[in-house]
Design brief:
It is a single chain. The chain is an alpha+beta fold. It is 15% helix and 32% strand. It contains three helices and 14 strands. It has helices at 7-17, 123-130, 159-172; strands spanning 24-26, 32-35, 42-44, 49-54, 69-74, 85-87, 89-97, 100-108, 113-114, 119-120, 135-142, 146-153, 179-184, 200-201. The chain has a five-stranded antiparallel β-sheet, with no helix packed on it. The protein has a four-stranded mixed β-sheet with strand order 13-12-11-14, with helices on one face. Helix 2 runs antiparallel to helix 3. It is globular.
Protein backbone atom coordinates (compact mmCIF):
# COMPACT_ATOMS: atom_id res chain seq x y z
CA UNK A 1 0.00 0.00 0.00
CA UNK A 2 1.44 3.36 -1.11
CA UNK A 3 4.75 1.84 -2.26
CA UNK A 4 5.96 0.26 -5.48
CA UNK A 5 6.15 -3.54 -5.52
CA UNK A 6 9.65 -4.87 -6.12
CA UNK A 7 10.19 -7.94 -8.34
CA UNK A 8 11.15 -10.00 -5.27
CA UNK A 9 8.01 -8.91 -3.39
CA UNK A 10 5.86 -9.71 -6.42
CA UNK A 11 7.23 -13.29 -6.52
CA UNK A 12 6.90 -13.78 -2.74
CA UNK A 13 3.28 -12.54 -2.65
CA UNK A 14 2.29 -14.68 -5.63
CA UNK A 15 3.85 -17.81 -4.13
CA UNK A 16 2.33 -17.19 -0.68
CA UNK A 17 -1.25 -16.68 -1.88
CA UNK A 18 -1.17 -18.80 -5.01
CA UNK A 19 -2.60 -16.03 -7.21
CA UNK A 20 -0.95 -13.42 -9.47
CA UNK A 21 -0.49 -9.88 -8.20
CA UNK A 22 -2.50 -6.98 -9.66
CA UNK A 23 -0.96 -3.51 -9.28
CA UNK A 24 -3.15 -0.45 -8.73
CA UNK A 25 -1.97 3.15 -9.06
CA UNK A 26 -4.11 5.96 -7.65
CA UNK A 27 -2.95 9.55 -7.19
CA UNK A 28 -4.82 12.30 -5.39
CA UNK A 29 -4.30 14.40 -8.55
CA UNK A 30 -6.68 12.07 -10.43
CA UNK A 31 -4.47 9.63 -12.36
CA UNK A 32 -5.47 5.97 -11.92
CA UNK A 33 -4.32 2.74 -13.53
CA UNK A 34 -4.14 -1.01 -13.03
CA UNK A 35 -2.19 -3.98 -14.34
CA UNK A 36 -3.34 -7.30 -15.70
CA UNK A 37 -2.87 -10.21 -13.23
CA UNK A 38 0.78 -11.15 -12.96
CA UNK A 39 2.09 -8.33 -15.15
CA UNK A 40 3.99 -5.21 -13.99
CA UNK A 41 2.76 -2.91 -16.79
CA UNK A 42 -0.26 -0.76 -15.89
CA UNK A 43 -2.90 0.72 -18.18
CA UNK A 44 -3.86 4.27 -17.17
CA UNK A 45 -7.21 6.01 -17.57
CA UNK A 46 -5.78 8.70 -19.81
CA UNK A 47 -9.25 9.68 -21.02
CA UNK A 48 -9.58 11.54 -17.70
CA UNK A 49 -5.93 12.53 -17.15
CA UNK A 50 -3.14 13.14 -19.63
CA UNK A 51 0.17 11.73 -18.37
CA UNK A 52 3.42 12.76 -20.07
CA UNK A 53 6.53 10.69 -19.25
CA UNK A 54 9.46 13.13 -19.52
CA UNK A 55 13.15 13.43 -18.64
CA UNK A 56 14.75 16.00 -16.33
CA UNK A 57 14.44 18.66 -19.04
CA UNK A 58 10.76 17.99 -19.72
CA UNK A 59 11.34 16.11 -23.00
CA UNK A 60 9.22 13.00 -23.74
CA UNK A 61 10.99 9.68 -23.19
CA UNK A 62 10.48 6.82 -25.68
CA UNK A 63 9.00 3.44 -24.75
CA UNK A 64 11.35 1.37 -22.64
CA UNK A 65 13.15 4.39 -21.12
CA UNK A 66 12.45 5.39 -17.50
CA UNK A 67 11.18 8.93 -17.05
CA UNK A 68 12.49 11.38 -14.50
CA UNK A 69 8.95 12.55 -13.72
CA UNK A 70 5.39 12.57 -15.03
CA UNK A 71 3.53 15.71 -16.11
CA UNK A 72 -0.16 15.37 -15.33
CA UNK A 73 -3.07 17.31 -16.83
CA UNK A 74 -6.38 16.60 -15.11
CA UNK A 75 -9.33 16.69 -17.53
CA UNK A 76 -12.20 16.17 -15.08
CA UNK A 77 -11.53 18.26 -11.97
CA UNK A 78 -13.22 21.57 -12.76
CA UNK A 79 -12.84 22.91 -9.21
CA UNK A 80 -9.04 22.69 -9.18
CA UNK A 81 -7.64 22.29 -12.73
CA UNK A 82 -4.14 20.86 -13.01
CA UNK A 83 -2.12 21.53 -16.16
CA UNK A 84 1.19 19.66 -16.56
CA UNK A 85 1.42 19.18 -12.81
CA UNK A 86 4.69 17.45 -11.89
CA UNK A 87 4.55 14.03 -10.22
CA UNK A 88 7.90 12.72 -8.98
CA UNK A 89 7.00 9.14 -9.92
CA UNK A 90 9.21 7.36 -12.46
CA UNK A 91 7.25 5.66 -15.24
CA UNK A 92 8.71 3.48 -17.98
CA UNK A 93 6.25 3.78 -20.89
CA UNK A 94 5.38 0.60 -22.79
CA UNK A 95 3.43 2.12 -25.66
CA UNK A 96 -0.30 2.72 -25.93
CA UNK A 97 -3.38 0.49 -25.71
CA UNK A 98 -5.61 2.44 -28.06
CA UNK A 99 -5.75 5.90 -26.46
CA UNK A 100 -4.59 4.67 -23.06
CA UNK A 101 -1.04 4.97 -21.72
CA UNK A 102 0.67 1.73 -20.67
CA UNK A 103 3.67 1.98 -18.35
CA UNK A 104 5.39 0.34 -15.41
CA UNK A 105 5.80 2.38 -12.22
CA UNK A 106 9.39 2.31 -11.01
CA UNK A 107 8.93 4.23 -7.76
CA UNK A 108 9.52 7.85 -6.85
CA UNK A 109 12.38 9.81 -8.39
CA UNK A 110 12.86 11.36 -4.93
CA UNK A 111 13.90 7.93 -3.61
CA UNK A 112 16.77 7.42 -6.06
CA UNK A 113 20.21 7.12 -4.48
CA UNK A 114 22.32 9.52 -6.55
CA UNK A 115 26.07 8.91 -6.38
CA UNK A 116 28.75 10.65 -8.48
CA UNK A 117 29.24 7.46 -10.53
CA UNK A 118 25.61 6.34 -10.90
CA UNK A 119 21.99 6.78 -9.83
CA UNK A 120 20.82 3.62 -8.07
CA UNK A 121 17.23 2.48 -7.58
CA UNK A 122 16.67 1.46 -3.93
CA UNK A 123 15.38 -1.95 -5.04
CA UNK A 124 19.00 -2.78 -5.94
CA UNK A 125 19.86 -2.63 -2.24
CA UNK A 126 16.52 -3.69 -0.76
CA UNK A 127 16.36 -6.97 -2.69
CA UNK A 128 19.16 -8.42 -0.56
CA UNK A 129 17.64 -8.04 2.94
CA UNK A 130 14.18 -8.75 1.49
CA UNK A 131 15.15 -12.30 0.51
CA UNK A 132 16.98 -12.91 3.82
CA UNK A 133 14.55 -14.79 6.08
CA UNK A 134 16.21 -13.59 9.31
CA UNK A 135 15.63 -9.91 8.41
CA UNK A 136 12.15 -9.06 9.65
CA UNK A 137 12.25 -5.36 8.73
CA UNK A 138 14.86 -2.97 7.37
CA UNK A 139 15.59 0.65 6.50
CA UNK A 140 18.28 1.73 4.03
CA UNK A 141 19.98 5.11 4.43
CA UNK A 142 22.27 6.32 1.65
CA UNK A 143 25.80 7.36 2.61
CA UNK A 144 28.41 9.21 0.58
CA UNK A 145 29.96 6.00 -0.73
CA UNK A 146 27.31 3.34 -0.19
CA UNK A 147 24.56 2.53 2.29
CA UNK A 148 23.79 2.04 5.97
CA UNK A 149 21.17 -0.66 6.57
CA UNK A 150 19.29 -0.77 9.89
CA UNK A 151 17.69 -4.20 10.30
CA UNK A 152 15.37 -5.86 12.80
CA UNK A 153 16.81 -9.37 12.88
CA UNK A 154 15.70 -12.75 14.19
CA UNK A 155 18.50 -15.14 15.10
CA UNK A 156 22.18 -14.68 14.22
CA UNK A 157 22.61 -14.37 10.45
CA UNK A 158 26.00 -13.70 8.86
CA UNK A 159 25.92 -9.90 8.70
CA UNK A 160 29.29 -9.72 6.94
CA UNK A 161 27.99 -11.95 4.14
CA UNK A 162 24.81 -9.87 3.92
CA UNK A 163 26.85 -6.67 3.63
CA UNK A 164 29.01 -8.28 0.95
CA UNK A 165 25.88 -9.09 -1.11
CA UNK A 166 24.72 -5.47 -0.89
CA UNK A 167 28.18 -4.24 -1.91
CA UNK A 168 28.14 -6.58 -4.91
CA UNK A 169 24.71 -5.26 -5.96
CA UNK A 170 25.97 -1.67 -5.76
CA UNK A 171 29.06 -2.54 -7.80
CA UNK A 172 26.85 -4.05 -10.49
CA UNK A 173 24.82 -0.82 -10.46
CA UNK A 174 27.94 1.24 -11.22
CA UNK A 175 29.69 2.06 -7.92
CA UNK A 176 33.38 1.19 -7.91
CA UNK A 177 34.12 0.76 -4.19
CA UNK A 178 30.86 0.86 -2.21
CA UNK A 179 30.93 0.84 1.60
CA UNK A 180 28.05 -0.95 3.31
CA UNK A 181 27.13 -1.20 6.98
CA UNK A 182 24.52 -3.56 8.48
CA UNK A 183 23.23 -2.39 11.89
CA UNK A 184 21.01 -4.66 14.00
CA UNK A 185 18.32 -2.57 15.75
CA UNK A 186 15.44 -3.39 18.08
CA UNK A 187 12.98 -1.32 16.01
CA UNK A 188 12.99 1.10 13.10
CA UNK A 189 12.52 4.83 13.48
CA UNK A 190 8.91 5.74 12.62
CA UNK A 191 7.03 8.93 11.94
CA UNK A 192 5.40 9.94 15.25
CA UNK A 193 2.16 11.00 13.52
CA UNK A 194 1.61 8.18 11.03
CA UNK A 195 3.54 5.32 12.63
CA UNK A 196 5.13 4.57 9.24
CA UNK A 197 8.81 3.80 8.69
CA UNK A 198 10.39 5.12 5.51
CA UNK A 199 12.13 2.19 3.78
CA UNK A 200 14.71 4.14 1.75
CA UNK A 201 16.30 7.45 2.78
CA UNK A 202 18.45 9.25 0.16
CA UNK A 203 21.49 11.25 1.24
CA UNK A 204 20.53 14.68 2.55
CA UNK A 205 17.00 13.67 3.59
CA UNK A 206 16.18 15.04 7.00
CA UNK A 207 15.12 12.64 9.70
CA UNK A 208 16.21 10.95 12.90
CA UNK A 209 18.39 7.88 12.92
CA UNK A 210 17.11 4.64 14.35
CA UNK A 211 17.54 3.34 17.89
CA UNK A 212 20.99 2.72 19.30
CA UNK A 213 22.57 -0.47 18.03
CA UNK A 214 25.62 -2.70 18.55
CA UNK A 215 28.79 -1.83 16.59
CA UNK A 216 28.37 -2.18 12.78
CA UNK A 217 29.22 -5.46 11.12
CA UNK A 218 30.46 -6.22 7.64
CA UNK A 219 31.89 -2.86 6.58
Amino acid sequence: MAEAVSPAERIAIGEAFGVPVIDLFVSTEGLVGHSEPGHPVLTFASDTCLAECVDDDGRPVPPGVASAKVLLTNLHNLTQPLIRYELTDRFTPAGMAGHFLRASVDGRADDLFRYPAASVHPFVIGAVPLRTAAVREFQVRQTGSGADVAAVIDGTPDLAALAAEVRDSLRQAGLTAPAVTIRPVAALDRDPLTGKARRFIPLGTRGRRGPAAPPPSGE
